[in-house]
Amino acid sequence: MVRETKCAIIGSGPAGYTAAIYASRAALDPVLFTGLQMGGQLMQTTEVDNFPGYPAGIFGPQLMEDLRQQSLRFGTEIIQDDIIEVDFSDRPFRLIGHTGDITLADSIIIATGASAKWLGLENESRYFGTGVSGCATCDGFFYKDKSVVVVGGGDTALEEAFFLAKFAKEIHLLVRKDTFRASQILQNRLQQFPQISVHFNTELKDILGDGKKVEAVVLKTSIPNEEEKVLPVEGVFVAIGHHPNTSLFKDHLTLDERGYIKTVKGSSKTGIPGVFACGDVQDSEYRQAITAAGSGCMAALDVERYLSSRLENNGIFCLEPESTIATIITKNGITCLENITL
Ligand SMILES: Cc1cc2nc3c(=O)[nH]c(=O)nc-3n(C[C@H](O)[C@H](O)[C@H](O)COP(=O)(O)OP(=O)(O)OC[C@H]3O[C@@H](n4cnc5c(N)ncnc54)[C@H](O)[C@@H]3O)c2cc1C
Fold this sequence. Notes:
Blueprint: E1 2-10, H1 14-25, E2 31-33, E3 47-48, E4 58-59, H2 60-73, E5 77-79, E6 83-87, E7 93-97, E8 102-110, E9 114-116, H3 122-126, E10 132-133, H4 136-139, E11 147-151, H5 155-164, E12 170-174, H6 184-189, E13 196-199, E14 202-209, E15 214-221, E16 229-232, E17 235-238, E18 242-244, E19 275-277, H7 289-312, E20 326-330, E21 333-337
Parallel strand pairs: 1-2, 1-8, 2-5, 8-19, 10-17, 11-12, 11-17, 12-13
Antiparallel strand pairs: 3-4, 6-7, 7-8, 9-18, 14-15, 15-16, 20-21
Helix pairs in contact: 1-2, 1-7
The chain binds flavin-adenine dinucleotide.
């Protein structure tokens, strides 16, 4: 089937649903594609304590259901499909779903999020949410006066360890190599945290528990003939990086060196007028539900202005500052002029 919409939103995390709430209230009749993980990353967690408006906290899946209902209330069409192909070279933009459905859209909001990288251990997924976490900002509070390990040697791992130092009594930082990948400035800060001990050349081999919670980890160093060691801990924070879900867009949009979509500072605009990005897919820095939701709001407002400026200009679209692509839309059709620096 072929459907047409003023605004297509790709992704059903906090960014996508918030964009949908704003776009539907602005009468843009948005169509939202959920992707394979309806509700996004928060579907994997239990308590969310830091989303404003919930003084007693809320379960991640319940929060996402509330956001879904709120976007439905104003008329968002929610479609369970995964977008597998995009074409931004012509107007309207074209999306193809896994179901084979084609969507023609005047504007696009990309909210496909990011995924944490995991070690791939069997017990890592078993104890996910009951001792294993990928986010200290989200779960650190639950480890007050407890012993934890943080896995990783980059900036993220050190920042996770610093954050945990506010709560945990003992933090073991496991670094696979004999040096950090983290910036020197963060390495220097380590001295301020006597509760963090660094274990170089050390890998996490297994996570042990009673079936309900984590009780210890098994460590192996790269020193020949050295035996594996069991370290009692109650939390495991895996901080070996994230990858943004941008493979679909890599040939169409400018990505930064880490693969995140580049947006014009202070907005959700990508290099293509009419295509906007919000949430974790364009944010390697904050990666929180509330920042994703905030940028979803920005994207919907940007879409609204983009669509109405097209109408006000009676068919001629103004050129985007800081864009490398100039697009001139005439009444009779569309001319896309690429690689024009404004
Ligand atoms: C275990 C865990 C616990 C967390 N706890 C907290 C917390 O307590 N507080 C907090 O603020 N943050 C927390 N976070 C971080 C928070 O979940 C993210 O920052 C937030 O979900 C990002 O929202 P998003 O909308 O950008 O993307 P996501 O939530 O990642 O959603 C991305 C969406 O895009 C969809 N998608 C991807 N590709 C496609 C495609 N090709 N076609 C269609 N759809 C697609 C997916 O199905 C998904 O619905 C946690 C994260 C994790 C993993």
